[in-house]
What does this fold into?
Amino acid sequence: MIYLLLFYTFFKIGLFGFGGGYAMLSLIQGEVVTKYHWLSPSEFTDIVAISQMTPGPIGINSATYVGYTSLINAGYGHILGILGSITSTIAVVLPSFILMLIISKFFIKYQKHPYIEAVFSGLRPAIVGLIAAAALVLMDTENFGHFTNAFPNGLANFYQTNYQFIWSVLIFMAVFIGTRWLKVNPILMIVLCGVAGFILY
It folds into this structure.
């Protein structure tokens, strides 16, 4: 039963995950964490981090890891967990594969048609919204820690209480400035942030 549910869930995500892997993240989080509780918020955050660091599209990588972790959390063994990975990976890829076979035959011929252009004009802002939603999903206490207003008890106590939050915000700002304005290679930023996290936490 869980395999059918995994297949249905990720087939649906693959079917409506316009905008690529990052746009899929909010859909995946809504299904596997909020709806079915297959993963905890911290496990989902870890999976997103691993999916970004490993080769391949983040949406497919996330589906692979979610399929395995969901089975393990449900009490199944590693072999069945691997089968869960295969199930969710095939399910999330299958809609794109089918749709691209169909669309590729007609898109080149009809891409300048007013109705087709109108559809894509509507999809573009929706894709930006999905990616923004994925970013907001990850801006939670699992990633940034808790903020406590302990300033009246002294500056040292404020820093100690909000240590994780302060450094998380500083790392976030450094990465944003580094990639947006300084054009630092994202791979280098990932490595540096991993080193910073190892040292700080």
Remarks:
- Residues 6 and 88 are 6 Å apart (CA to CA).
- The chain has two domains: 2-138, 145-200.
- The chain has a mean pLDDT of 85.
- The chain is about 80% helix and 0% strand.
